[in-house]
Amino acid sequence: MTLEALMSAIKQGMNSVAFVGTSCNIDAVTKMQKSSYGFLHLFMRAKVLKLGLFCMDTFSYEGIKAVLESYGITLENVDAMKTRKGKFEVTLKDGKQQIFDLNEFDEYRSSSCRFCTDLTAENSDLSFGEVGSPRGWTTVLTGSALGDEIFNGAVDNGYIEARHLTDDELERVLNWQK
Ligand code: SF4
């Protein structure tokens, strides 16, 4: 779905595009950028900034809907969802939060996630995730000189507040990655 949107943007003549995706989405774009077949002529027309999201699994829309509905929750009443520390957290529009065991969603997990080895979207210009950082902060890794420039520019201009990960925090990211 994300690739479809990207290709549509490029075909419409947008030549400077920020693409946000999970590690496997970022890998797909990287392969398309490098491939000497097919899409290369399109990618030569556009600069694509790749923004990756740390990812350990995704679940089908129908699966999430079915599990939540079995607990009497309809998607219309959901404000936000996230997986965190092995749990699936759902925040409802009235502010209440419900936490589920990830195992409940097992049968709806994408099959490719069982083979995936890339937690931190290593082929991104910048990647973002909660692993390694305290609650309320985001771990950001820069994967290219361009990503580094953009990140430091945002810090220098006061758009974001940043500090380096401590050794322990970085170790946590590396352990999860392993
Ligand atoms: S865990 Fe699954 S959805 Fe996430 S990057 Fe890997 S294959 Fe893609």
From TrEMBL:
Database matches in Pfam families: FrhB_FdhB_C
Top-rank taxon: Archaea
GO molecular function, one term: oxidoreductase activity, acting on CH or CH2 groups, with an iron-sulfur protein as acceptor
Domain (Coenzyme F420 hydrogenase/dehydrogenase beta subunit C-terminal) ranges: 15-167
UniProt keyword list: Iron, Iron-sulfur, Metal-binding
Name used for this protein in its record: Coenzyme F420 hydrogenase subunit beta
Species of the source: Methanosarcina barkeri MS
